[in-house]
Amino acid sequence: MKLRARLAGALIALAALVVTGLITAPPASSAQLTEVTGFGTNPTNLRMHLYVPDGVPDRPALLVAVHYCTGSGPAFYSGTEFARLADQHKFIVIYPSATRSGSCFDVSSPQALRHDGGSDPVGIVSMVRYVQQRYNTDPARTFVTGASSGAMMTNVLLGAYPDVFAAGAAFSGVPFGCFATTDGSSWNSACANGQISKTPQEWGDLVRAAYPGYSGPRPRMQIWHGTEDATLRYPNFQEQIKQWTNVHGLSQTPSLTDQPRSGWTRTRYGGTGTTAPVEAISLQGVGHSLPQSGMAAMVIDFFGLADDDPGPNPTITPEPPGDCQVTYTMNTWNTGFTAEVKVTNTSQSPLSSWTLGFTLPAGQTITSVWNATITPDSGQVTARNVSYNGSIAPGGSASFGFQGTHNGDTGEPAAFTLNGTACST
Asked: Is 245:251 a contact under the CB 8 Å cutoff?
């Protein structure tokens, strides 16, 4: 009850579908969320819901999506983008549900923090093995993500079951072992308040001790945290970085630092690409709820699921001639949408600044923008570069995006001009 009382207030926003910024409507397909029983060893009587998209290929990838306190698997299904992305990229999603009072997962008991030790992690791994056998999923592409209690469970599963999971993404979590208790309590105030600090070696040793003798590869980790998180405070962000860089034998000096959106600082460790061993995204001014959109797509990119083989004999579209090319990608839900825009300089001359003109369909209104400025917020608009992305070399590109609302018309702009010159799309 103490855990539930501490987390419930901050996580009502999650239940209201405004938390992780992964929000959208349930997917529009014939596939349905289905409850599965009798899936194997389940010491804490977790419930299991499964989403299998239409047309999954042989050997599909598998994602476990773990809910927050007070939540459930079906709530996480309907309140996040993962099922829609599963439809798009053809992977299967497991949604576990905690059944104890408060609906939080056990991330603190000695049993939970040991490989095959018992408690909730054993039940979740049983779900994974059930789906791997029944649907012939690819064991090398098994992933886990979660928010708050689910983020803490993501750390636990990666630490205790490196033989099961290839990568994880944790939204507002704490390091593996940080919430550990020995008195039967499920709440660790010192950890929640960001008061537990260890050396990278100490954090890494906790992970290695969870599965003595394991010498195989370690899962990659993506970490998200808001600087104003008052429930699982922001120092836990850096402690997770210390832990997972040490687990991978990496320096804490980033290989890359950038800003994918305004207020977001991303660091990558051990590599500069999308699938670096460790990636961390700090969200300036954000609390325990993460209202920005587009995060789930970045998770799928980090897992490598957005680059799945398109199948035999894919159609290759040659780059059209001209001075510029625009790629415009929309994600829509209910009355909202996001748009990602990539501008490529296909001329022979570098650009030192750029303006992109286009017309939004009637009823679409921009509410927030990243990596550009856009005026006005509807109708015929102009996007201008910001200080750090104005230069585009020949063959280079710049990207920006925005979030908006619509009244039913989810069409895309028909044409674009870059510095007054018409662009191919």
From this structure: yes
